[in-house]
Design goal:
Layout: E1 9-10, E2 15-19, E3 24-29, H1 31-37, E4 40-44, E5 51-52, E6 57-63, E7 67-71, E8 76-81, H2 84-87, H3 90-94, E9 102-106, H4 118-126
Antiparallel strand pairs: 1-2, 2-3, 3-9, 4-6, 5-8, 6-7, 8-9
């Protein structure tokens, strides 16, 4: 298993979250998730400007093996999407923690307290 970045928070549904300035939350999928999925062939991202709710399905990744829903880690508004991964979803396979999928301007950063730290997520994926 690759070393998990300590500066991120993790969802039970295998999204990683990086908090940035101005209540912006950058979201991607974990290395564990991309390994389980296999080679990604398609990514559907949320629409720019759309409102999302914490734990709401808001995006989809498809691999040669299966499709998987992605869930918003916080409630807020989608303020950026990584269009490059739509054309080249394999970027996520190549560098899961260096390839973000979308950003949300969070309504309430306290919702991040429901997410796991690195150690807790590592324990979960080892079980």
């Amino acid at each position: 298993m690759n070393d998990l970045p300590n500066n991120l928070k993790y969802a039970k549904t295998h999204e990683w979250v990086q908090v940035e300035n101005d209540n912006i939350v950058r979201v991607g999928i974990t290395d564990f998730a991309q390994q389980e999925l296999g080679d990604l062939v398609y990514i559907e991202l949320p629409e720019l400007g759309s409102k999302v709710t914490a734990q709401q399905q808001c995006a989809v990744v498809e691999s040669v093996k299966t499709a998987s829903d992605l869930f918003s880690p916080v409630s807020g508004t989608v303020v950026a999407v990584n269009d490059a991964v739509i054309d080249e979803p394999e970027q996520v396979n190549d560098n899961a923690y260096g390839t973000w999928l979308f950003c949300i301007k969070a309504d309430d950063l306290n919702e991040l307290e429901a997410l796991m730290d690195t150690e807790t997520y590592q324990q979960m994926i080892e079980e």
